[in-house]
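Trying the structure run again after the queue cleared.
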Amino acid sequence: MTATIPLHHGTFTLPEFFTAKFGLKSDDVIIIEDTPQGILLKPNRIESTRVYSDEEMTQWESEERALEPHRQWLEAELAKVSRDESRWGS
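Done. Tokens:
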């Protein structure tokens, strides 16, 4: 999609179609690049990070161990789904 938008005092507003499509919200940061084709705008996708506690890590490890007896079956089922999706072009 292409849009023509006015520039007012060096600023512009992206049409809602673009903000919705790219999940942009007020105060998000946009990267602007000078390219041979012109200006390229890209969402700045810096994700926040968090340090997990030892208790959280222990809980996840426990849950992983509980799933281990079912892992082979789960992997086989996921492989079937993947094959079906690739056959249909999804």
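The radius of gyration is 22 Å. Worth checking whether this holds up in the mutant runs.
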